[in-house]
Structure prediction request, 54 residues.
Amino acid sequence: MGQLQKYGFPLIGALFLALGVFKFLQGDSWVVWIIIGVLFGGLSALSRRKDKQP
Prediction:
């Protein structure tokens, strides 16, 4: 399960980031949702890189 957590998609963080963007487009308060998304690893969904081992 260690590899699943290491290489898995950070679903919760991505959901909070998506909710933050949705709230931003609506004009509601969005900063808290973006911060929570970053804390739960949502930005790693944008910059996912797998380590290549020979």
In short: The two ends are 22 Å apart (CA to CA). The CA atoms of residues 20 and 31 lie 7 Å apart. The first helix runs from residue 2 to 7. The chain has four helices and no strands.
